[in-house]
Amino acid sequence: MDKPVRRLAGLVLEFWMPRRCLICQKHLEAEPGELCPACRSALSDPAQREVRTGVHFRRCLSPLRYEGELRSSFLRYKFRGHWHYSHTYALWMWECLRELEPDLRRFDCVTWTPLSLPRRLRRGYDQAQRLARGVARYSGLPLCPLLEKYRHTSPQSGTRDAAERSANVRDVYCLRRGVSVEGKRIILVDDIITTGSTLEEASRVLREAGAAEICCLTLAHA
Ligand SMILES: [Zn+2]
User: I want to staple 39 with a disulfide (CB 3.0 to 4.6 A). Which of 23, 97, 158, 213 is the partner?
Assistant: First the structure.
């Protein structure tokens, strides 16, 4: 498209679908990007970050706290079809990864904790896969589907405590057929870390299959 046509298309789009801040939904005027200045400054606060250590994964890095308007934004992404948020979310995750893991060259690939097939078909997309795809693109690492979720579980958000959440995810993942992770260093992406039981279980499967190192990366921590 040449410039005037693109500008006209932009104006028409702006009229029908005014741009809103991806977090607080405030109308965006001339600001570039997808955030209003207030959300931009709140989200760039390094105090939002969390680095957690695990049993089967070495560390889990999360750029943001899962609360308030970020939580509402994420629920629009996960349940209300705002799948395009994944580009911005993945960029925040990538920036966090790049700063906290300076030696990124040692990693072999990016993967994610998948949804079960029935749930993916119902939702139409796998929210963690979209984040992983974005992180892979920003980092230049290959995106590798390594895990399969073969047991349907009740949603983690409906379970009560850590023990229950851990029991809920036990033995739900397996390695995809024909996949080898022997000696691989893997970045494992999920959307939110709460008790960590989902990521521990997925990491356990990868480690028991021979993976050398798992570094988890999530959008937010609860
Ligand atoms: Zn905002």
Answer: 23
| pTM for this prediction | 0.86
Contacts of 66 (CB under 8 A, 6+ apart): 74, 192, 194, 220, 221, 222
Which helix H or strand E contains 97, and what residues bound it?
helix 85-100
DSSP three-state, residue 77: helix
Tens-digit pLDDT profile for residues 172-215: 899 999 999 999 999 999 999 999 999 999 999 999 999 999 99
Q: Give the distance (Å) from ligand 1 centre to CA of residue 216.
A: 27
Distance 99 CA to ligand 1 centre (A): 24
Q: How far is the CA of 100 from the centre of ligand 1 (A)?
A: 26
Residue 34 C-alpha to ligand 1 middle, in angstroms?
A: 9
Sign of CA pseudo-dihedral 80, 81, 85, 90: positive
The CATH code of the domain that includes 154 is 3.40.50
Q: Ligand 1 centroid to 137 CA: how many Å?
A: 26
CA of 128 from ligand 1 middle (Å) equals 23
Q: Does residue 68 share a domain with residue 34?
A: no
Structural domain containing residue 18: 1-40
Do residues 31 and 63 both lie within one domain?
no
Cα of 186 vs centre of ligand 1, distance in Å, is 33
